[in-house]
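Listing S7. Sequence submitted for prediction.
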Amino acid sequence: MILAILQARLSSTRLPGKVLKPILGRPMLEHQIERIRRSRLIDRLMLATSDDPSDKPLELLCSRLNIACFRGSLNNVLDRFYQAAVTIRPEHVVRLTGDCPLADSKVIDSTIRHYLDGGFDYASNALEPSFPDGLDIEVFRFSVLETAWKEASLPSQKEHVTPFIYNQPERFRLGSYKEDRDLSGKRWTVDEPRDFQFVEKIYETLYPKNPNFDMHDILKLLEQCPELEAINTDIERNLGYKKSLAEDKKQIK
């Protein structure tokens, strides 16, 4: 069984409440869920949010969309993620984050297929970035997640769920799924107000004509309207993880 767990919370520091910001009259997160549901390989989808009162609206959204919702630790995301997964104990787990409203089900399925065919413990399309930032997906064995939950100790390992796994290639069999072209310089995630502005324009242009638009439709639009990329392309990638690494150094000291 393949369980996909989508992480989301409303207390993001750079753009609070972003996952419920409306795009074409619907919450950003609802659009992302619609896109994930097109996956042919994911068996079940669950949202993992925090037990902080501020995240109650996410539980209500899940109820409306008929999606399982788990609520756990606000700051120890690894614990929250594991506790969500252990309620199902699937063989395989897919990790997705709620700041990726342009998630592509075809990319999700291709990464999962790469993981399964390779017999990996963990596989991702972000280990060696070649896809746009915002199409990230990680797939791993539940048993490996359980090991990380038992042994992880650093702030970065607890806040970002998987560094404990992918930083130990000598211990875990890692797989990297790559795009033929290097598209890693493109920014399709939502962390800042300008990111949301970019994504909103993509939806406003493509969704009314084709709600099933994919990565290639976005790339074609950006070729026709290169000014769209200028909205947010200068924002640094993985800034949150870099901040967590700084906290690791403080703890080690």
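Caption to Listing S7: primary sequence and predicted structure tokens for the chain studied. The chain has a mean pLDDT of 93. The radius of gyration is 17 Å.
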